C-alpha cells in the first residue's frame, strides 16, 4: 500500500493501482473516459474533464457514464443549458438501463435552469413508467448511491420521492392546490417530515391555518419519520411562526377576515369526499395513468379506501390543477 494516497500520481506502479483507484474512486484503464474521470477527480480540472468526456462519447467509450458524468460537471460549471442539450442529443447512444438515471440528471438540470414546466412533464412521465411497470427495469427495488454509500430503494419510496419533487415544482408555479394534491398522495405512500413541512406550507398559502398547524405539530411531536432531524424540526417551527403571523394579519386586515375563514372551514367540512386524483383534467394525464396510481395505492394499502376525505370541493379548482 505504498504511495496510493498521492493524488497527483498519473500512473501508479502496478502493485499500487488497485489501492489508487479505490481511494480516488476512478476507474482503471487508459481510454478517454478514464482520463476524463482522472481530470475531474484527481486533477480537479472540470474543463479538461468535459473535453475528455466528449471524446469518450464520440469514441463510444462507456457512453452511459460519460454522458451522465459530463452533464453533472457542466451543471457544476453553470453550463446547465448546455448539459440539457447534450443529454437530449446523445441519450439515444446510451443503453436502456441508463435512461432512468439520465432522466434524474435532467430533472436536476431543469431545476438549475428554472425550467419548471419541463420538470413537471418529466416527473409525470416517470410516474407513468412506474404504473406501467417500466421503472427499475421491471424490478421491485434498485440500488442507489449517495455520498459514496449504496442502498436499496423500493418502488414505493421512489414513487413518493417523485411525487414530492412534483409537489415542489407545482409550488414554484404557486399552484398550491396541485402541490397539495401530490404531497398528500406522497405522504400516504411513504410519509416523512420534510414532505409534511412542504404540505404545511401549501396549506398556509391557501389560508387553511388549522390544517397546516395540525400537520406541522405532527412533525414537532415526532409522529413522522425524520421528525427527529433538527433541520425538519427547525423548519416546522419556522413555518408555525409564519402561520401565526399570516393568520393574525389575515384576521386583522379586514372585519370580514374571521367570517371568511369560518365559511372556508364550513365548506371544507360539508362537501363530500372525492378521489385524491378526482378527474383526468386535474393533471392533464390519461385516464389509465390516474387509475393506475389508485390501483398501486390499493395494492400497497388494501385496507385504505380509495375515496379519501381530504380534498373536499376540489373539483371547482380544476383549472388551477391543469398543467
TrEMBL record:
Output the Gene Ontology cellular-component terms: nucleus
Coiled-coil residue windows: none
Q: Which InterPro entries match?
A: MS5/SDI1 (IPR044961), TPR-like_helical_dom_sf (IPR011990), TPR_rpt (IPR019734)
| Gene3D superfamilies from the UniProt entry | Tetratricopeptide repeat domain
Look up keyword Repeat and say if it applies: yes
| PROSITE patterns listed in its UniProt record | TPR
Arranged from A to Z, the UniProt key words for this protein are: Coiled coil, Nucleus, Repeat, TPR repeat
| Location relative to the cell | Nucleus
Mapped TPR repeat ranges? 160-193
Query: Which family is it part of?
Result: Belongs to the MS5 protein family.
Report what the protein is called. Answer: Protein SULFUR DEFICIENCY-INDUCED 1
Amino acid at each position: 500500500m505504498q504511495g496510493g494516497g498521492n493524488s497527483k500520481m498519473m500512473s501508479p506502479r502496478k502493485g499500487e493501482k488497485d489501492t489508487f483507484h479505490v481511494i480516488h474512486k476512478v476507474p482503471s484503464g487508459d481510454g478517454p473516459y478514464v482520463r476524463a474521470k482522472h481530470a475531474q477527480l484527481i486533477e480537479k480540472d472540470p474543463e479538461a474533464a468535459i473535453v475528455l468526456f466528449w471524446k469518450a462519447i464520440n469514441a463510444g467509450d462507456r457512453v452511459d457514464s460519460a454522458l451522465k458524468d459530463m452533464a453533472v460537471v457542466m451543471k457544476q460549471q453553470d453550463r446547465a443549458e448546455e448539459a440539457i442539450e447534450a443529454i437530449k442529443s446523445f441519450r439515444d447512444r446510451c443503453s436502456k438501463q441508463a435512461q432512468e438515471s439520465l432522466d434524474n440528471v435532467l430533472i436536476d438540470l431543469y431545476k438549475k435552469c428554472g425550467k419548471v414546466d419541463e420538470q413537471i412533464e418529466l416527473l409525470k412521465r416517470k410516474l407513468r413508467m412506474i404504473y406501467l411497470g417500466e421503472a427499475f427495469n421491471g424490478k421491485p427495488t434498485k440500488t442507489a448511491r449517495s455520498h459514496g454509500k449504496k442502498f436499496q430503494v423500493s418502488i414505493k419510496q421512489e414513487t413518493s420521492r417523485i411525487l414530492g419533487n412534483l409537489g415542489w415544482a407545482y409550488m414554484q408555479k404557486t399552484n398550491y392546490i396541485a402541490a397539495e394534491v401530490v404531497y398528500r398522495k406522497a405522504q400516504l405512500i411513504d410519509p416523512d417530515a420534510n414532505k409534511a413541512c412542504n404540505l404545511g406550507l401549501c396549506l398556509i398559502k391557501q389560508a387553511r391555518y388549522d390544517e397546516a398547524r395540525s400537520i406541522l405539530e405532527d412533525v414537532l411531536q415526532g409522529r413522522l419519520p425524520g421528525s427527529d432531524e433538527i433541520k425538519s424540526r427547525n423548519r416546522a417551527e419556522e413555518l408555525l411562526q409564519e402561520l401565526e403571523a399570516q393568520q393574525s394579519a389575515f384576521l386583522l386586515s379586514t372585519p370580514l377576515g374571521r367570517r371568511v375563514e369560518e365559511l372556508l372551514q364550513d365548506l371544507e367540512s360539508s362537501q363530500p369526499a372525492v378521489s385524491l386524483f378526482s378527474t383526468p383534467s386535474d393533471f392533464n394525464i390519461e385516464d389509465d395513468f390516474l387509475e393506475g396510481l389508485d390501483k398501486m395505492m390499493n395494492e400497497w394499502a388494501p385496507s385504505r379506501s380509495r375515496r379519501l376525505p381530504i380534498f373536499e370541493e376540489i373539483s371547482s379548482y380544476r383549472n388551477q390543477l391543469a398543467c
